[in-house]
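Sharing a chain and its predicted structure for anyone who wants a worked example. Both blocks are below, sequence first, tokens second.
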Amino acid sequence: STRNGVEIFHLGKTLEKMGEALEFLRAKVAAKGSVLLVGTQPAAQQILEDVSKELNVPAVTVRWLGGTLTNFKVISKRVEYLKKLRSDFATGAVEKYTKKEQLGLKKELAQLEELFSGIENMSGRPDVVIVIDPVLHKAAMNEARKLSIPVVAYTNSDMNPEEIEYMIPGNTKSRSSIDWFMGKIKAAIKEGQKAATLVTLKSN
């Protein structure tokens, strides 16, 4: 509901939806399912990058590139090129080029780093996509829907719940609110990863 232009969320409803989403996420990760985090707005970027690094989970935090899900083959070729370019700079292989060419490659590497470094460890299509504000990320939502990939979305109330498997209402413009949401998501992924490791150890 809205009061004086401020959206008021029913806490009980939020926690109930959150519980369902976390249970689903935990089970997916425990069964070796992969996760992709999506949040390109300033309030979400750093939070998602931190979770991504800590849990080794891919994240899109700069901008969504068309085909990230639906044309993964092309995207992964760009990621491979990024890795090669980075390696060429590290080994000095670029020194055979002129200074001007090296400068061009350096610029290209910086652009590729910005766009692709968050999804370098994405080995295929994710099994779950976690989106902060689906209205802002329509392209990502459309691709997930096209491939029937379930979505866990942290969303303001301006979203059709039928379009999202797990819709958690909340304030997607507040950094502290996103932090709260991602804290819960992080804990669920961690638990799932731990369970997956235990299964692997038992089967070896």
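Comments welcome. The beta strands are 2-3, 6-7, 35-38, 59-60, 128-132, 151-155, 166-169.
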